[in-house]
């Protein structure tokens, strides 16, 4: 794939972001969280651009050529490649969280089952778990971490509107689930986004275990 970068984006910066996305994707694929080419990943390049996975690529085999540039309207820049169908949700995260520089979306079994189980409640309420402290802004297990579960739809503006409504209501948001789908989370860099994703995978698994054991 030929990626034409607009000025003033340094090629080395794009390459570094693309490599970071591809490395993370391959590791998450090994964990079994990106089945059947699902999932999408991105990193902010600058105030006007982000690097994101090309649609339909096997996340366990990504390389630099599987990452493309989009603008902050989610449109491809300098390439004919097609970005993820959910690019708008990535762009929304960068717009609503200026500190966010990496967005991760995966489809693990745990995330998918939890999204269905808690869909009726519309939220997973996490409280009392030590690993809540892995989420930025949470310094004690005594805090409450709410992960909303939004209805699934193929119409991305509808999902974006639900995320906006949650935030506009003044509710904190570290991540969200989509019913029957998977999870979105983000971070100041790839390491923080990975930490958030791994912590939430663990916490959701704990909640599922509690439901099974108390049944």
What is the domain total for the residues?
A: 1
Structural class by sheet pairing and helices: alpha+beta
Q: Beta-sheet strand percentage? A: 15-25%
Q: Based on DSSP secondary structure assignment, what is the total number of beta strands?
A: 8
CATH architecture: 3-Layer(aba) Sandwich
Q: What is the subunit organization of this protein? A: single chain
What is the assigned CATH homologous superfamily?
Class II aldolase/adducin N-terminal domain
CATH class: Alpha Beta
C-alpha Rg, in Å? 17 Å
Any low-confidence stretches, pLDDT <50, length ≥5? none
CATH topology: the name is L-fuculose-1-phosphate Aldolase
Q: Helix content range of the residues, please?
A: 25-40%
- Cα distance, first to last residue? 52 Å
- Overall shape: it is globular
- Contiguous helical run count: 5
**Which sheet architecture does the biggest sheet show?**
8 strands, mixed
Describe the protein in words.
The chain is α+β, with helices and mostly antiparallel strands. It has one domain (11-214): Class II aldolase/adducin N-terminal domain (L-fuculose-1-phosphate Aldolase, 3-Layer(aba) Sandwich), CATH 3.40.225.10. Helix content is 36%, strand content 20%. The chain contains five helices and eight strands, in the order H-E-E-E-H-E-H-E-E-H-E-E-H. The protein has helices spanning 11-30, 87-96, 109-117, 156-168, 190-214; strands at 40-46, 49-53, 67-71, 102-106, 123-127, 144-150, 175-178, 182-187. An eight-stranded mixed beta sheet has the order 3-2-1-4-8-7-6-5, sandwiched between helices. It is globular and about 55 Å long. The termini are far apart. The mean pLDDT is 95.
């Amino acid at each position: 794939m030929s990626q034409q970068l607009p000025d003033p984006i340094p090629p080395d910066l794009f390459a570094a972001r693309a490599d970071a996305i591809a490395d993370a994707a391959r590791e998450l694929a090994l964990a079994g969280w990106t089945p059947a080419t699902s999932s999408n990943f991105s990193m902010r390049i600058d105030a006007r651009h982000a690097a994101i996975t090309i649609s339909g690529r096997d996340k366990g085999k990504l390389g630099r050529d599987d990452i493309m540039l989009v603008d902050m309207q989610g449109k491809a820049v300098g390439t004919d490649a097609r970005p993820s169908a959910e690019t708008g949700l990535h762009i929304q995260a960068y717009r609503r969280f200026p500190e966010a520089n990496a967005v991760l979306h995966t489809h693990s079994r745990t995330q998918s089952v939890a999204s269905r189980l808690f869909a009726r409640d519309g939220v997973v309420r996490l409280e009392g778990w030590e690993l809540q402290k892995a989420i930025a802004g949470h310094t004690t297990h005594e805090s409450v971490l709410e992960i909303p579960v939004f209805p699934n739809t193929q119409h991305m503006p509808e999902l974006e509107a639900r995320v906006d409504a949650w935030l506009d209501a003044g509710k904190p948001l570290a991540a969200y689930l989509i019913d029957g789908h998977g999870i979105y989370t983000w971070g100041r860099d790839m390491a923080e986004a990975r930490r958030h994703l791994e912590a939430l995978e663990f916490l959701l698994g704990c909640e599922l275990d509690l439901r099974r054991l108390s049944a």
